[in-house]
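> @MW can you paste both from yesterday?
MW: sure, first one:
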Amino acid sequence: LGNLTNLTHIRLNYNQLIGEIPSEIGNLVNLEILKFYNNQFTGEIPSEIGNLTKLTSLILDHNQLSGEIPSTIGNLTNLTDLRLFFNQLTGAIPSWIGNLTNLTHELNLSYNQLTGEIPPEIGNLTKLISLILEENPLSGEIPSTIGNLVDLDILHLGHNNLSGEIPSEIGNLINLNYLSLDNNELTGQIPNSICNLTLNFSDIHFIIHSNKLCPPYPSCIEVL
């Protein structure tokens, strides 16, 4: 890799690549796109990946990566797309995720083993279109700062251990076309502000079942 420092794009998708991602990846300081999805990489994401400050896309999904998300990814402030789903990552979603304010396409950390709360700093990602955190044992309340993500088209928080009430600020997400909060431990009433959303509450674009929510329900909710 040391001889490839002028590379701007690496795409090695749908292969049978095995072993760990080499730390030398951090030498490729001109990289803008790094896509290693659908391989069999194991081990931790090397911290040296944080040297790639020109990266706009970091796509490592569908591997067998483990360990915590390295803090050095917080240096990659040009990222517009971060996809680490379908791995075996552990630890918390770090608060520095809020540094990645140029994320516009997708932040997808689903189908891992991430624990702890959704950090309130996630509300800094005001340009984000898709936030997908499903199928982790995340706990705690949905932060009210989620209401800052007014450009969201997709919000998927299903199949976690989230608790507390749905924040009324969710009604700020007027561009949502898909909302999934199912299979959590959410309690209380659904806030009336949810009726600000323009999605179809009676089809598969609104999924809220398997919680501990109670009536009365907002007038716009037809099927729970």
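MW: second:
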Amino acid sequence: TWGWFAAPIWTLGVLAAGIAGPGAFLMKSLTHRAPTAHEDIQNAPPAPEQTHSANAETPRTLPPMGGPLRIYLFGLMRVVRNGEILSNSTDIWRSAKTRSLLAYLALRGKSGANQTEIVNVLWPPKAELDGTAEQRSLTAFRSYLSTLRRVLEPDGPRGSQRYVQQAGARYFLRRNSEIWVDVWQFDDLVAQAERHWVAGQQEAAVACWEEALALYAPEGLLVDDEHLESTALEATRERLRQTWLLGLRRLAKVYTGQGQPERTAELRRTWRAAQRLGQEK
């Protein structure tokens, strides 16, 4: 009888031990591993930040210089506002004439322009121009000026002079740290290069010329503008082109003297191509 009763008890005991042993091991293993997994999460390096797709679309030609407003007039006109390249659509500018107004003010520089000069360039008078037509042109100018100010400073107050300033009867694009224009920078660098050249500081002159030539586009100034009268652009276009050609010659002369035939040949090829292009025009 004892044997009969003992057999199930021992069997149950063995079974219980068999179950309890692996169970305890499993619980111990889980208890041990849980903190490790938590530590792995806590110590894991942060995920890399996603790069905004707009950064990949930014042209490499845009230098990291200038303030909130950067204006490019060499080649195709481009305007960069607070790091954003503004599209040339009518949704932004209302009309391409708004961009032409901006370009004209930028090219006028410190001298600026009065209403009559601006109207004559953007709304050239017809032979039969009368008082009513002239008034319409002035009204159009004021409307486009208001649009331009809103484009450049969308959150600014009405009539803001942060970028476009009126002094008496003349209008200017402000020259301060908030505005960068490639033509302004080009002229400033050329002036510095010539001062260094005259002073015999060849290395400094070469550095300025190299930086200036990097800004210039061989196709010239404002190749996509359709509204500025040619008389308002041609003289400036030719002056900038001749200055660029002078820089090419100066650098070719320096690099020839320094025994750098590859750079010299590159500059001479560019100069000859520019000459041929000028003859074709």
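> thanks! The radius of gyration is 35 Å.
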